[in-house]
Amino acid sequence: MSFKVEILPSAWKDLKSIEDYYALEFDADTAIAVVDSILDRIEKLEIFPDIGNDTPDPWLNKRDYRMLICKKHVAIFRKIDKSIYVYHIFNTRSDYPKLFKSMMAEGKVRKDLEEIVDESGQPLRVSEEYDWGEPKGREIW
Predict the structure, then answer these.
(1) Which residues pair with residue 83 across a beta bridge?
(2) Which of 17, 52, 102, 112 is disulfide-compatible with 66, CB 3.0–4.6 A?
(3) How many other C-beta atoms are found inside a 10 Å radius of the C-beta of residue 31?
(4) How many Cα atoms occupy the beta-carbon half-sphere of 95 within 13 Å?
(5) What is the pLDDT of residue 109?
(6) How far apart, in whole angstroms, are the C-alpha atoms of residue 16 and residue 4?
């Protein structure tokens, strides 16, 4: 079974920063090689979605975030249905669980509906004022 891997804009921005760093510190060929290596590793998630590990942070693990080590970098991702969403890519020497959680607190990481409902402490209610149409995917009316 193949999964769809979606690298979110925040992770693309991280990749661009990584590429810029290696281009300045070393050269363009090294920068391209590092980014290609990260992307190759992320691409493996399409076929092997469970190759990632739990993060060092129980709070992130409880929310189904996982990490994928890519040599000197780590990709934070989550599997939802048949898709893998890559949220951010950090240097492994950084305190990436803390950085990721602070980005979530600042609203720089998209939350899914289940997280929003959990944080509100209120049950999810469907408005009776709107015709929602027929259910699609996991929706159940």
Answers:
(1) 4, 80
(2) 52
(3) 18
(4) 5
(5) 64
(6) 22
